[in-house]
Amino acid sequence: MSQPPFQPPQQPPQPPQAPQYPANPYAQPSPPPAQQQSPGFGPPAAPQQPPMQAAPPPVPGQPAMYGGQQAFPGQPAYPMQPPPPYQPAPFAQQPHAGGGNPVGAVLLGFLVSFVVALLYTGLIVATYRDQSTTTANVLYFAHALLNGAVVGALVGKMAHRSNGARVGGAIVAALGTFFGYADALPVIVLKEQSFMALKSLLEAQPFFPAKAWWNDEAHGGVDWLMVLGLVVAAVAVWGVAHLVASRRRPA
User: Fold this and answer.
1) What pLDDT was estimated at residue 233?
2) According to the 3-state scheme, what is the secondary structure of 69-103?
3) Integer Rg of the chain from CA
4) What are phi and psi of 11, to 5 degrees?
5) Which bin fits 82, alpha (ψ -120 to 50), beta or left (φ > 0)?
6) What is the pLDDT of residue 92?
7) How far is CA 226 from the centre of its chain?
8) Residues 147, 231: Cα–Cα separation, whole Å
9) Which residues pair with 215 in a beta bridge?
10) What gap in Å lies between CA 185 and CA 179, rounded to an integer?
């Protein structure tokens, strides 16, 4: 009797095996099993780490986690304030109404007037023997006009429209006109006589140059032409200063 062909015996059914990894709560595929490196050469393989899970979105009304910027609903942004207008310092030096340098103009005018008067004194000492009364008067008024014009030009250029500087310049020019004539008298006495004679004259009459300036020897009384020379010098200062300041271009 022939035997059936050999068949392996059937094995009994086995119970289901538990999964190697826990169930994925987010329905993500399970990571592949770590590959075991066979012993040999080469660096060891880094162990596999499970992927990072994203944090759930923040609930409205609650501050954000992990130190993020917190939103505060209901509060408007801080409004920008306009900068205040510029105000000058309370103790700042205000510009002079007339402009320029009035004090410096008067001082410089005094030095220049002294030089012009000194030149006039030398002219009188050098030519007094050849001068007639008319020539002496013409030279006196010419000196007064020149002295006032030079001082007025300096005042108008440096002090511009300062009335105080013009008044000071007028006084300086008038003094220069007076002393230019009066200083020549002691020098003439010293030249004609001697130092002792001049000393005796000054001891007896300390103000004899001023008396000789305003006394009219021919008719007696006051020599008004000499006084008029002071007025000419002052008017020349004021007029020239005004002319120079007016022609100056504004800054």
Assistant:
1) 96
2) CCCCCCCCCCCCCCCCCCCCCCCCCCCCCCCCCHH
3) 57
4) -85, 145
5) beta
6) 46
7) 49
8) 12
9) 222
10) 10
- Directed axis angle between helix 133-158 and helix 163-182, to 10°? 150
47 pLDDT above the threshold of 90:
no
Helices (H) and strands (E) in the chain, counts: 7, 0
Please tell me the distance from the alpha carbon of residue 114 to that of residue 173, in angstroms, as a whole number: 9
CA pair distance 173, 231, nearest whole angstrom: 10
Query: CA nearest 203: which of 216, 217, 189?
Result: 189
Is 177:117 a contact under the CB 8 Å cutoff? yes
Run of H or E residues at 187 = helix 184-192
Higher-pLDDT residue of 89, 105: 105
Convert the pLDDT of each residue in 185-230 to its tens digit. 999 999 888 888 888 888 888 888 888 888 876 666 788 899 999 9
What is the sign of the dihedral through the CA atoms of 130, 133, 138 and 140?
positive
9-38 pLDDT per residue, tens: 565 566 555 555 455 555 555 555 555 555
Within a 10 A sphere around the Cβ of 228, how many other Cβ atoms? 14
Sign, CA dihedral 70-72-76-82, equals negative
pTM comes to 0.59
Phi, psi of 46 (to 5 degrees): -70, 140
* Token pair in block for residue 207: 């103000």
Tokens of 168: 């000071």
Locate 187 and state its tokens.
């020098």
| In the block, residue with structure tokens 């000071």 | 168
Measure CA 213 to chain center: 51
Place of tokens 């140059």: 209
Whose tokens are 């060891």? That residue is: 44
Residue type, 73: P
- Are 113 and 151 a contacting pair, CB within 8 Å? yes
